[in-house]
Amino acid sequence: MSSDAPPRALVTFVRTMDCFAEWCGRIFCWLIVPLVAAITYEVFARYAFRAPTVWSYDVAYMLYGTHFMLGAAYTLYRGGHIRTDVFYQNWSPRTRGLIDASLYLFFFFPGMAFFFWMGLQEALHSWDIREVSNESPWRPALYPFKTVIPVACALIFVQGTSEFAKAAWAALKGKPL
Asked: Considering only CA atoms, which of 10, 18, 168, 174 is closest in space to residue 103?
């Protein structure tokens, strides 16, 4: 094995985390089906029968929010989050790795830890009081929806660990993992 070859344990770790993110993304993408079904039903009921539902608004924002949040780790894996590519594309792999690893270490991980902690506190409080929505007469339970926040943060944190490992390798060796 060459000295520039990544350790097998590192490659296994990164592939496992990436596989997990992809698996989660493929599962969570199916949340779009009940979202589209609920909105389609609402539009049909509203205009065909002049009988709007009391639940469609709540279902729509909860499913969309869940879809959006739980898909964030997959988006991170696929490189779909915002980046200033006009600068980034011209940098060497070592410079990209150094910048990315630094940003993950000093901003991403502390930010995700903060969001996880605060989201967990909010979710636990919501479960404790069995919080319901006041946005509609249907008043659905909010505590499962609020639980999505710490779960999404944990998933993003896991994928961020993989991305940090890739960036650190690129910073050290000057080539992608």
From this structure: 168
13-24: per-residue pLDDT in tens?
Answer: 999 999 999 999
Dihedrals φ, ψ of 160, to 5°? -60, -35
Cα separation, 36 vs 44, in Å, equals 12
Is residue 158 a contact partner of residue 74, using CB atoms and an 8 Å limit?
A: no
Interatomic CA distance for residues 154 and 166, integer angstroms: 19
Residue for token digits 């967990």? Answer: 120
Q: Rounded to whole angstroms, what are the CA distances from 106 to 13, 30, 131?
A: 22, 34, 35
For residue range 85-105, what is the model confidence (pLDDT) as tens digits? 777 888 999 999 999 999 999
Q: How many CA atoms lie within 13 A of 9 on its CB side?
A: 0
Q: Give the helix ranges, DSSP H, for 71-174.
A: 72-77, 85-88, 93-103, 109-129, 143-173
The residue among 177, 108, 117, 176 whose CA lies nearest residue 149 is: 117
Owner of token pair 């729509």: 60
Predicted TM-score of the model (pTM): 0.89
Among 141, 143, 149, CA closest to 120? 149
